[in-house]
């Protein structure tokens, strides 16, 4: 059974930083595109960032220049470093593992990020 285990969410103030982590099994990590979606209250789930096994990255326009996605192949873990956080970044963040066509095959349980004063 494939599991994506997320950690790192929490409550921060605007302008602060947070790092999310997502660990999974090596068999998945080596061949799948990994990344993060987020879903804010009352909104559709949106793609935030993704990274291929070869470390090619993609970002949503709303987070470019503020978020960095990376992967540690030795730890089978993908990270999302979030900086200059804004209240509109408040959402539940879901780690995913997907195919080359970005079809999502596996989801994490979600971790909540709240940006508020």
Describe this structure in words.
By secondary structure, this protein is mostly beta strands. Helix content is 3%, strand content 49%. It has 1 helix and 11 strands. The strands form 2 sheets. Strands 2, 4, 5, 6, 9, 10 and 11 form a 7-stranded mixed beta sheet that branches. A 4-stranded antiparallel beta sheet has the order 1-3-8-7, with no helix packed on it. Strand 9 and strand 10 form a beta hairpin. The protein is globular, with a radius of gyration of 13 Å. It starts with a strand and ends with a strand. The mean pLDDT is 94.
Give the helix/strand class: mainly beta
Count of helical segments? 1
Helix and strand run: EEEHEEEEEEEE
| Structural Rg | 13 Å
Taking the alpha carbons of the first and last residues, their distance comes to 40 Å
Q: Tell how many strands the DSSP assignment holds.
A: 11
Strand residue percentage: over 45%
Taking the sheet with the most strands, its summary is:
7 strands, mixed
Mean of pLDDT: 94
Judging from the principal axes of the Cα atoms, what is the shape?
Answer: globular
How is the secondary structure organized here?
Blueprint: E1 5-7, E2 10-12, E3 18-23, H1 26-29, E4 33-39, E5 46-51, E6 57-59, E7 67-72, E8 77-82, E9 91-98, E10 104-107, E11 111-115
């Amino acid at each position: 059974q494939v599991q994506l285990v997320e950690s790192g969410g929490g409550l921060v103030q605007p302008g602060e930083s947070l790092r999310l982590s997502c660990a999974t099994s090596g068999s998945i990590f080596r061949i799948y595109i990994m990344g993060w979606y987020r879903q804010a209250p009352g909104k559709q789930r949106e793609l935030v960032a993704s990274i291929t096994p070869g470390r090619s990255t993609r970002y949503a326009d709303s987070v470019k220049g503020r978020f960095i996605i990376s992967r540690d192949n030795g730890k089978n873990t993908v990270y999302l470093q979030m900086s200059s956080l804004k209240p509109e970044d408040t959402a539940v963040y879901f780690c995913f593992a997907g195919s080359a066509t970005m079809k999502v095959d596996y989801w994490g349980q979600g971790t909540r990020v709240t940006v508020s004063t």
